[in-house]
């Protein structure tokens, strides 16, 4: 029996890792920029008590602020990416910690800036901002003014800035616990001839999804049981970490005078709380197609009872995919061709030329993300597996983020190039839909068609239904604490189990450990974030349909959205692209599309296969 192990970071070929030299040529260059943060912050502080004396004084301060923030972004990005590549390397943890310490100290120094700008008389500030010299800073200042009601005194802002590093303790501890300290062991995978060639494969947060798609139910059950047994061992710690994160959210919201943590989270993007509530209500009104899908899954798998570990295995029996990374890039080049050669050429060159950290290694952060800075590549972290079709969709997804960043950085000055997460999930899921359309049109047999449809159903389910369920969980847990109800292991698990029962419906038989899932979701440490996946896919499906069925005008509208960066609030930029997210129609249309895919899969599906 062969035991397969993950390679250490040092053994991963350079061609399979991201190239960080556009950020810093070496660690010495990074150290020099880190050392420059305090002097750059001091250049901002030197303008203190002068901002309202003249437009020139304000402009000098804003330019100094931009210089500090652009450097800090690059320094933090470099340390963050190194840490993500190997969270167990203490050198990178040290770099990350030193950056956070320096950034916290610098932010405390310049915390006077927002209150002082907001103290300038509105008429005076409006007149100054109209001058051409303020063009690169106008949007940022206008957004800052909107936050005036929730900006504290200079002394209070300094206190909040000083505690910003401590505020990340729960998230940092959660990441280290789940990605580094917890050992999930291995899962025995039989060979093609029974036990002959059987091997032990490592179970990690990244490989867990692969095991959940394994055709052998015994393998799925063992992986599921081992995975959650590890979380069960640390359930009290995980619950305490999440409670601490929620308490921090509420502390910050109340400190700034918001009525709730959700209002505090949505206010900066000018997203009404009603948009969040409308999402939950619309999805809850459309749970029947989801329950019907789980009933179909149970029938097609030939199971007497459907378990949580049966929810992700492909429904097209016997279909296997093998897509080497380089081939995946070329598929994307063709699939995304409706967006033009500049888009596809830039993306594919980046995917092959230094943007991407491709494969899993020991200590690497799980999942996938896109992250960069104004002066660097829009980097992508993957844990790519060439026999998992969903990983091809992951490249498309993260590529959408990165190209959004690429266009934003090239179309805007630094102070307002950064778009919101609300907008980000549109560009990523837009690409996923184009990829699905490309693959399904070229599927050469019914089994592959069923495989693709079931995969797309699973992806829409994960992004629309599942993220809305997560959004409900966040809404409930924060409301509990805001009303004086403490979060405990038992209350968290019961809250999450109720949601599992509602969303999975009567066909799913939940195991005692199923509700531990609520303690392992990293996005919960970024409050009220996950709903943006659900609204994002709803907007993306509408826009993908508009662009592929339209012409140059519709494509230009979409690129205007990609290029808008942070120059508009998200609702405004999406309206520019052609979709209105303040109403229920885009969400309902996405749910109707899901229902149609379930109907099509059922129509093309044969009788039940052996479970």
Q: What does this molecule look like?
A:
α9 (169-181) runs antiparallel to α12. 42% of the residues are buried. The chain has a domain at 9-167: Oligopeptidase f, N-terminal domain (Butyryl-CoA Dehydrogenase, subunit A, domain 3, Up-down Bundle). The radius of gyration is 25 Å and the shape is globular. A 3-stranded mixed beta sheet has the order 1-3-2. It has a 3-stranded mixed beta sheet with strand order 5-7-6, sandwiched between helices. A two-stranded parallel ribbon has the order 4-8. Helix content is 61%, strand content 5%. The two termini are 26 Å apart. With 611 residues, it is mainly alpha-helical.
What would you say about this model in short?
With about 600 residues, the protein is mainly alpha-helical. The protein has helices at about 25-45, 55-85, 90-110, 115-120, 120-130, 140-145, 155-160, 165, 170-180, 210, 215-235, 235-255, 260-265, 275-285, 285-300, 325-335, 340-350, 390-410, 420-440, 445-480, 490-505, 530-550, 550-565, 570-575, 585-605, and strands at about 1-5, 185-190, 195-200, 305, 355, 370, 380, 510. Strands 1-3-2 form a three-stranded mixed beta sheet. A three-stranded mixed beta sheet has the order 5-7-6, with helices on both faces.
């Amino acid at each position: 029996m062969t035991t397969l192990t993950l390679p250490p970071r040092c053994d991963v070929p350079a061609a399979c890792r991201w190239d960080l030299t556009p950020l810093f040529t070496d660690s010495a260059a990074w150290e020099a920029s880190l050392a420059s943060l305090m002097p750059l912050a001091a250049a901002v502080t030197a303008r203190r008590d002068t901002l309202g004396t003249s437009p020139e004084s304000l402009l000098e301060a804003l330019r100094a602020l931009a210089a500090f923030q652009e450097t800090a972004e690059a320094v933090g990005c470099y340390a963050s990416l190194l840490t993500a590549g190997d969270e167990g390397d203490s050198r990178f943890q040290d770099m990350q910690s030193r950056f956070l310490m320096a950034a916290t100290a610098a932010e405390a120094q310049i915390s006077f800036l927002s209150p002082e700008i907001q103290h300038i008389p509105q008429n005076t500030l409006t007149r100054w901002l109209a001058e051409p010299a303020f063009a690169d800073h106008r949007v940022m200042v206008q957004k800052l003014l909107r936050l005036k009601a929730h900006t504290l005194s200079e002394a209070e802002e300094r206190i909040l800035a000083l505690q910003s590093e401590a505020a990340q303790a729960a998230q940092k501890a959660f990441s280290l616990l789940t990605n580094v300290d917890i050992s999930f062991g291995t899962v025995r995978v039989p060979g093609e001839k029974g036990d002959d060639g059987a091997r032990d494969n490592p179970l990690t947060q990244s490989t867990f999804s692969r095991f959940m798609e394994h055709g052998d139910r015994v393998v799925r059950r063992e992986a599921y049981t081992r995975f959650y047994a590890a979380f069960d061992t640390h359930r009290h710690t995980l619950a305490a970490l999440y409670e601490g994160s929620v308490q921090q959210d509420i502390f910050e919201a109340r400190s700034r005078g918001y009525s709730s943590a959700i209002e505090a989270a949505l206010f900066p993007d000018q997203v009404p709380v009603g948009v969040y509530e409308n999402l939950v209500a619309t999805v809850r009104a459309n749970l029947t197609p989801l329950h019907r899908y789980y009933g179909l899954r149970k029938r097609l798998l030939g199971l007497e009872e459907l378990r949580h570990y049966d929810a992700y295995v492909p429904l097209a029996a016997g279909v296997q995919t093998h897509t080497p990374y380089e081939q995946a890039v070329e598929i994307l080049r063709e699939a995304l061709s409706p967006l033009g050669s500049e888009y596809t050429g830039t993306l594919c060159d980046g995917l092959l030329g230094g943007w991407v950290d491709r494969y899993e290694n020991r200590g690497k952060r799980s999942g996938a993300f896109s992250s960069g800075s104004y002066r660097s590549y829009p980097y992508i972290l993957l844990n790519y597996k060439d026999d998992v079709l969903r990983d091809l969709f992951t490249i498309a997804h993260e590529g959408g983020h990165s190209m959004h960043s690429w266009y934003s950085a090239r179309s805007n000055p630094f102070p307002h190039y950064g778009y919101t997460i609300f907008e980000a999930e549109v560009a990523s899921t837009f690409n996923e839909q184009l990829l699905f359309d490309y693959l399904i049109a070229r599927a050469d047999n019914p089994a592959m068609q069923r495989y693709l449809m079931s995969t797309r159903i699973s992806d829409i389910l994960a992004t629309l239904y599942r993220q809305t369920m997560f959004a409900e969980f966040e809404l409930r847990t924060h409301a509990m604490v805001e009303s004086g109800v403490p979060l405990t292991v038992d209350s968290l698990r019961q809250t999450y189990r109720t949601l599992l029962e509602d969303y999975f419906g009567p066909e799913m038989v939940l195991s005692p450990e199923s509700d531990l899932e609520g303690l392992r979701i990293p996005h919960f440490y970024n409050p009220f974030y996950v709903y943006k996946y659900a609204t994002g896919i709803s907007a993306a499906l509408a826009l993908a349909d508009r662009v592929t069925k339209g012409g140059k005008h519709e494509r230009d509208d979409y690129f205007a959205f990609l290029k808008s960066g942070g120059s508009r609030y998200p609702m405004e930029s999406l309206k520019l692209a052609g979709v209105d997210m303040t109403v229920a129609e885009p969400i309902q249309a996405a749910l109707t599309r899901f229902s149609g895919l379930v109907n099509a899969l059922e129509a093309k599906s044969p009788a039940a296969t052996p479970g």
